[in-house]
Design a protein that fits this description.
The chain has about 290 residues and is mainly α. It contains twelve helices and five strands.
Length: about 290
């Protein structure tokens, strides 16, 4: 029998909304260059798409990192100390967890006692990691190893499986979220090779006009989303990959500006074969790099 894992997330501690995050962040706008501002805004927005909202301490830390007032290692140490001070406020709730959540909690590296604790720590540490990736991107060919390298850097402080796909973790079965069935773990090597070989054959979509590029990016993004190779962290990882792919082709892709609802709806439609809404989303959030300078 195929193992079916149902993906569910619990809300983070004291959830707010993306608009509130940006209001806090905008207080720092006059202290940042346009590039520094975009890097932090994109990091905040990419997490907001997962229901993770940076608080004032997170945002202050990101600003100091971007201004080189705080190194990546110093930011990690500071975040961990902050987490420990908050730990006393989190109760060990006796909530019955799904198999997926039990295994997820069991694979954490941050001594989380429940999902609320885990997602708070994950948020604080991956915000730092994502900004570090934006400042010093992963290098190499845009292949499956590149995607795994992004995941490794994002989640290495949080999960034992950072950088490993479900096939490597020996999860051969179906992966399900809502009505969407993702690639079975047993098929990941075969399907990922076909997807990334096709990307290379298409020369990574270089030298395409805006409309053609948006079309190709929508098709590939749908394939990447249906691949869903990791047991956690697929969304943030694949959006960072898509941004780097766009930059390589001379475009700025701002998926962090999309609402969570619009992103979910476009991906669900694309998974059913209706790619148009995802293509429109891409087209509206793509700009030539020279327009952003």
């Amino acid at each position: 029998m195929l193992l079916i894992l149902l993906l569910q997330r619990s809300p983070v501690l004291n959830p707010t909304c993306k608009d509130d995050c940006i209001k806090i962040f905008n207080k720092y706008q006059d202290k940042l260059t346009p590039v520094q501002y975009r890097n932090i805004e994109a990091t905040i927005g990419n997490h907001a798409l997962e229901g993770m909202f940076a608080d004032k301490y997170d945002i202050d830390r990101l600003v100091r990192m971007e201004k080189n007032d705080l190194s990546y290692d110093e930011a990690r140490i500071e975040a961990i100390a902050e987490i420990k001070s908050i730990r006393a406020q989190i109760q060990d709730k006796n909530i019955e967890l799904s198999l997926f959540d039990q295994e997820l909690l069991g694979s954490n590296k941050v001594e989380a006692i429940n999902l609320e604790d885990l997602f708070l720590k994950e948020q604080k540490l991956t915000l730092i990691a994502e900004l570090s990736i934006r400042d010093k991107p992963v290098t190499g060919i845009f292949d499956f190893n590149y995607l795994q390298a992004i995941h490794k850097r994002l989640f290495d402080d949080v999960y034992t499986f950072a950088g490993k796909d479900r096939f490597e973790m020996r999860y051969p079965g179906v992966f399900v979220k809502g009505e969407t069935h993702f690639t079975p773990g047993s098929k990941l090597p075969e399907v990922s090779k076909a997807l990334f070989d096709a990307l290379q054959d298409d020369k990574f979509f270089v030298n395409l006009d805006h409309k053609e590029f948006a079309q190709e990016m929508a098709i590939f993004f749908n394939g990447l989303n249906l691949l869903h190779p990791f047991r956690e962290g697929n969304g943030r990882t694949q959006r960072l990959f898509m941004e780097s792919l766009a930059q390589n082709a001379g475009y700025v892709l701002s998926l962090h500006q999309v609402s969570q609802e619009a992103m979910i709806r476009a991906c669900q439609n694309a998974a059913k074969g209706f790619i148009n809404s995802l293509e429109i989303l891409m087209r509206h959030h793509l700009e030539p790099i020279e327009n952003k300078r």
